[in-house]
Amino acid sequence: MKNILIIGSTGQIGSELTMTLRAKYGDSNVVAGFIKGAEPKGKLLESGPAEEADITNPAQITGIVKKYKIDTIYNMAALLSATAEAKPQLAWKIGVEGLFNVLEIAGEMKCAVFTPSSIGAFGTNTPKDNTPQDTVQRPQTMYGVTKVTGELLSDYYFKRFGVDTRSVRYPGLISHVTAPGGGTTDYAVEIFYSAVKGEVFKSPIAAGTFMDMMYMPDALSAAIKLMEADPSKLVHRNSFNITAMSFDPEMLKSTILKYVPDFKMEYQIDPVRQAIADSWPNSLDDSCAREEWGWSPQYNLDTMTKNMLEELNIKYLMK
Hints:
Blueprint: E1 4-7, H1 14-25, E2 30-34, H2 42-46, E3 50-52, H3 58-68, E4 72-75, H4 81-86, H5 88-109, E5 112-114, E6 117-118, H6 142-161, E7 165-166, E8 168-170, E9 172-174, H7 187-197, E10 201-203, E11 211-215, H8 216-228, E12 240-241, E13 245-247, H9 249-257, E14 265-267, H10 271-278, H11 287-293, H12 301-317
Parallel strand pairs: 1-2, 1-4, 2-3, 4-5, 5-7, 6-8, 8-12, 9-11, 10-14
Antiparallel strand pairs: 11-13
Helix pairs in contact: 3-5, 5-6, 7-9, 7-12
């Protein structure tokens, strides 16, 4: 990777990924792509080049690729799970039609492409525990449908046209930098804000609902590590299971109580988010990622919880 374009640079993952890549490859070598209404601000804007990069506008993307001699595209444009259920047509337009545009451009301009998939690519008939790398994928949400379609499209462009496509199936992502934004697993971010503010957290997800999760530093590391991996070692490309931890709301509550003894949680179940969560795996088998490109997370539930609380406390003390 020499010249990189991040499509969706102001989103949940993109904002942190852009800064991480700039630190690694040089500020001027990483272009922050954005859409109108979601322009980069602060360090994201000031530290390097930024261009309007609407994934539904292929001419715009092509122009940026040519202007900056882009060789690697991180396609982070997507609607999160609960938002995609509310706006299925838009979710398809961004997640599938937008990806098609990127793959066409990548084939013509000889770019490598990273497009994240998700645990949402699985469904109720997928084995829920230690979900295999290769298994049944019959999601029941538009979010999941776009992710499975994206995996298939990416593999097709690799096999048919030689486009260097790679991706991971992200679990729920937890970050102290970006606020929760409509994902089913975002309860695991919202809970920390309540703990730091001294509020009673009302969990939209029921006790006993296990989902795979990951702290954002590991998620960023996974994307970069996969794109740097020796292509000859990759048996699977689109998409690798990766995980770091699996827990339910009660386990997360208990861990927070170690650091915030007066923390309180109640349940106020959101039927839409709960139904989505129930259709997803409890835990993933990520052995292929470990074997093929050396995947290994650095954070577990306890170390992630400790760091999240520390960082959010600093953030609120500064306000």
